[in-house]
Design goal:
Number of strands: 0
Number of helices: 7
Structural class: mainly alpha
Largest sheet: none
């Protein structure tokens, strides 16, 4: 693909693998125990704002397919957690108590403040998504700390998300 480098490819692979691990956990355990719905919602927001340029900006087939996979997978995870039985019945709202407005509002303010000289609303959306993604894992970590640990598949998922971010840096 155009401008593809090894680290981005490895980052994308780690990110795809994190979705596979998450779907495997959902299918095999029929449970969302230990998974933060709030973190998953934040990822939907992150990818929706970052990849809104899908509507007008075509870089490559690879790029477009990855964007669609990231958005669709994030939405699918939230859908399963909120709407699909028996999964929705295993969600622990009390343990997923992190106030995400404390993450969304500062990320939005930063996205606007840092990009106020730019005329493109997309640049503001993109910056907001970067700031929000950097803290999106916090509700998940908060939940794990409250529950005193994670299942193997949940910890693998978190490690893969970390690898994805590391390769992108």
């Amino acid at each position: 693909a155009v401008g593809m480098n090894l680290f981005r490819l490895l980052g994308d692979a780690a990110h795809l693998l994190s979705f596979i691990v998450m779907f495997w956990k959902l299918i095999s355990s029929k449970s969302v125990r230990g998974i933060s719905l709030k973190t998953q919602l934040l990822y939907v927001i992150v990818f929706a704002f970052r990849y809104i340029d899908l509507l007008w900006n075509f870089l490559s087939l690879y790029n477009s397919i990855m964007k669609v996979i990231f958005i669709a997978s994030s939405i699918a995870i939230v859908y399963v957690m909120k709407c699909v039985a028996p999964h929705k019945d295993t969600y622990d709202e009390d343990d997923d108590a992190f106030p995400i407005s404390y993450l969304i509002v500062p990320a939005a303010i930063l996205g606007i403040a840092v990009n106020q000289d730019h005329e493109s609303p997309f640049e503001i959306c993109w910056a907001f998504s970067i700031y929000l993604e950097s803290v999106a894992i916090l509700p998940q970590l908060f939940m794990l700390q409250k529950q005193g640990g994670a299942e193997n598949l949940t910890s693998h998922y978190i490690a893969l998300l970390g690898a994805y971010r590391l390769f992108y840096v």
